[in-house]
Write a structure and sequence with these properties.
Blueprint (H helix, E strand, L loop, with lengths): L3 H20 L1 E6 L7 H11 L2 E6 L2 H11 L7 E5 L1 H9 L3 E2 L22 E7 L2 E3 L24 E2 L6 H14 L1 H11 L11 H9 L5 E3 L2 H8 L4 H7 L3 E3 L10 E9 L5 H11 L2 H11 L2 E2 L8 H5 L10 H6 L1 H11 L3
Parallel strand pairs: 1-2, 1-3, 7-8
Antiparallel strand pairs: 3-10, 4-10, 5-10, 5-11, 6-8, 6-9
Length: 339
Amino acid sequence: MFTRFAFLRVLSLVLLFSASVQANQVNVYSARSEALIKPLLNAFTEDTGIKVNLVTGKADLLLTRMAREGKYGKADLLITTDVGRLHRAKSMGLLQSMDINSVTEMVSKRFIDSDGHWIALTTRARPMMYLADKTDVSQLSSLFDLAKPEWKGRVCIRSSSNIYNQSMVAAMIEQYGEAKVLEWASRFVKNFARSPQGGDRDQIKALVAGECDIAVANTYYLAGMAVDADKATSDIAKQVSVLWPDQSGDGAHINISGAAISRYARNKENAQALIEYMLTKKAQQWYAQDNQEYPIVGDVPWSPALMSYGDFKAQKIALETVGERNAQAVKLMDKAGWK
């Protein structure tokens, strides 16, 4: 007879088995497309035996989903782009502190949230781009120069709703103050070659098509186009030269892709292990060579495409402050008429 004692024993075994299965997995919500993250997650599983359950989606929609799911959500780890979004996730109460002691020797403190709620995985740079055989950039050395009258109708850039532009402006506010940046932005928008549209790749294509003389975009996109299997795409990218702004001043704007542990993570230790894995030299090498991003860890070589754009001086401000100034940047861009 199946007694109550036997039932409880079976139930305990089921719960024990479920716990062991749960303990050997990690659930990842990623704003990176599957092609740009799955190979690394597969390598993590092969090396650790920890299964990765991956959900991909648009960055802001993933934050909305995590907020809606609350304590019933399955996300253990969030992987997303731009410190603006990571700060947004923290402000929404979606994250918890991680153990940063094990990674501070590898990653500079300015790339780690002061409360340990997020950490950078890679860096991205946002320079100016041009066609060397068409445009004379000898008098162009700073983003502030793009607001000068001689560049009227000659600049391609994304809209003010784009997080990369918001963070770029937020960093400028932190460095130069709101009044100076508002004056710059109000003149800068008058130099747009067209109403902002499309993504970074679209700005690069417009540059080569002759719609503008300067494009502002992340090197991540340009390098990705340069190594694209589609010859038409790679041919476009190979015509473009990179101009690093503010090299005699505060340096070119950089941002990050990063990771954070969900507030309600059921597999926190595995999430922490995955973060540490993504900061190993092996993983950073994959990011650099396959994803065309700058490694956050030193002594990891850049990809040939990134190396072809040359070395550069980067901003040194704490990325946390850039995230904190996001709302201020959005208001400023709106005042300036940046659509």
